[in-house]
Here is the input.
Amino acid sequence: MIVKGAVVQTVLFILSLLVIYYSIIRSEKGEPPKLRTIPAILAFEELIGRASEMGRPVNFDFGRPTLTVTSRAPQTVAAIACMSHVARLCAAIDVPFYIATNTQDALPAFQAAVDDAYAFEGKPSPSDAIQWLGSGWGFDQRWGTWIEEKRIAANFLIGTWWAETVYHVEHTKRVGAMAIGGDSSVGANLAVLVAGCDYAIVGEELFAAGAYLSKDKTQIGSLYGQDILKLLIAVFAVVSIILQLVGVDVVSLLST
Here is the structure.
């Protein structure tokens, strides 16, 4: 039995599930919808090509990644798709590739993605690609020293970012590296990435980038369904405002 006052909310919830489910099924069985190209993704090859010309390595920086915390796991999964693409590009032209990280629960996923990327290019996976530099603020201090020792030429700061954002961006610039930043959270940390990096993946573009690079039809269908819902919500909001202005008590109707 639906609780009184929650009928409309329940109907909208069911409608949302149906829209996303239909979009996923349509994407998996037919031609998945096209995603617009994100400028930062096009710049991946630019940064790696520059690193190759300079004879210096590339680093992928996830920030504070995890696969066990529900609020941050989706960002990490999307960032892994981006990392896999970067690893493939590095493997193709023999540019040294590293992942300097502070996580432990996501290490197997990182390693599997790197192995698959190098195997796709017919190259052996480097044994030193993943650099675990500790955890907490101790990691950030060691990371700053490490990136200067390696003389990184390109740094991809894509994932989940907190207070360490300024430190990582500043050290990236100190070694003369180009940077691409990305975070799904639209807040102060994203502002630092946008201001300090050469290119930025902003907000939900991170999930779109993950789907775009992985070519996963389920992810693409889910994104398409969410965009449809956003459009429907916008139309619903406009119609509700118009009805309210002409005397229809929309608020009472939505409270049923």
About this structure: Residues 48 and 154 are 7 Å apart (CA to CA). The chain has two domains: 7-31+217-254, 39-214.
